[in-house]
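step: validate -> pass
step: tokenize input -> pass
step: predict -> running
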Amino acid sequence: MTLDILVCVKRVPATGGKITLTPDERHIDTRYASFTMSPHEECGVEEALRLVEKHGGTTTVLTLGPAVAADQLRDAMAMGVQRAILLQTGENEWDPGETARAIVTEIERQRAAGHDFDLVLVGNEAADSGDYQVGIRVAHALGRPAVNGVKSLEITGSTAVVKREAAGGWEIFEIDLPAVIGVKEGINLPRYPTVPGRLRAKKAPIETRMLSEPADGLASLRMRRLKLPPAKGEKGETLGRGVEAVPALVEVLRRLEIVTP
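step: predict -> pass
step: emit ->
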């Protein structure tokens, strides 16, 4: 059985990067920010590629966001994904409900065009907003089974065997395809794009559909302002200089139980 796999990704500020807000505290100042796809979703891209390498088939990557989100689609294509779809919006953040509705509409459009996805892979949660909802909402709307927090995924025929960590062991599920899977970082180690891959991705076409905000607006979002948490201060202690510092260092290692008396 060959597979037709869709991976949904999101453009997010680079993990560990310094975030600066605009003066009105309503947006991230992108002049000082770099962006990437969510780490969970990068693992989703890698998992899709591995499954298709093993079983054969087609991989597609999709994102909902502004025009610049095409950069993350090209990153996925540089890794080896064959097709890319951009659901282009304005600069406003869409809530999980509206995002899921837009994705479901696109999945149905792709089905009519001949791409009936066996698997829809999403990140376990968005790296910026922490939403866990999109994958579950998509699965519910499509009437498909869904599992989140997945750290292992195997396909046998028309069945997926998925595992996620639980207290003291693993939870194991067998679900019929088609299905929606929420992939968690650590399921694999994503590959680095090659130079030829980046060159191909730069020229590859991206299917783009312009979306407008729903007629009733993004009703569930009520932003007042963004707030950056206070930075955690760090301090150091000088134990001494040269060999004079050795006894103090040994005492610190003993307190940390790194060495024993």
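step: describe -> The mean pLDDT is 86.
step: cleanup -> pass
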